[in-house]
Amino acid sequence: MNINLNVVSVVYAANEKFAKILGVSLVSIYANNKDVDDIVVYVLDSEIKDENKDKLLMVLRQYSQTEVQFIPAKDISKNGLRTFRK
Fold it and tell me: Which of 21, 41, 51, 75 has an alpha carbon 20 to 30 Å from 58's alpha carbon atom?
């Protein structure tokens, strides 16, 4: 069995407002890690529009990357978060 250890996995949590910043971050990761065989990207997706997902996939193809997974995620900011302080 041949295992490729030159793979990087990256996880983002993003909504529509963060999609553009996510794209810039992907460009940076791909441009600065050309020695890595594959970069697998997971996006915890809080309602990113299909139009912006397509733009993110274009970035992926520009850098000959093969995998991004959009995982539906609930926007927890809508439910309010409990803050714990000392």
Answer: 75
